[in-house]
Amino acid sequence: xxxxxxxxxxxxxxxxxxxxxxxxxxxxxxxxxxxxxxxxxxxxxxxxxxxxxxxxxxxxxxxxxxxxxxxxxxxxxxxxxxxxxxxxxxxxxxxxxxxxxxxxxxxxxxxxxxxxxxxxxxxxxxxxxxxxxxxxxxxxxxxxxxxxxxxxxxxxxxxxxxxxxxxxxxxxx
Length: 173
Prior knowledge:
Elements: H1 2-55, H2 60-99, H3 107-115, E1 130-132, E2 137-140, E3 145-148, H4 149-155, H5 157-172
Antiparallel strand pairs: 1-2, 2-3
Helix pairs in contact: 1-2
């Protein structure tokens, strides 16, 4: 049973940590990048219209040049910021998931149902130091909380099937 527990801990920790860090960073960076690009485009259009009206009295050609320049510069700035933001979010989420525990019987299913669809969900409380005993309970050694395996199967069926396939391969050997 100890060998089975070690397999379960290692599998859940590596797969879940990598999947969550990539998924959350892409998810958040896309949403934040879209809002950032829309805001900067709105700001560039607003500034270009304002400058063109303000400068059109005496510098009509200069106002057109400045409006085009501002639009291009703000758009390139938005692209640069979105790339920087996605890289920063990936590093931050990966470090956060790697070194800090989000594990408890409440927080795991809560984050799982909040961030993910049920078919692609992963239980976040597997990220800390758990021992997995089959078919009984998933025991969180940090909080000494026991969660029934049926709950885990209901909340996150995909990772449970991955682990079951992995354990079947080990048993065959």
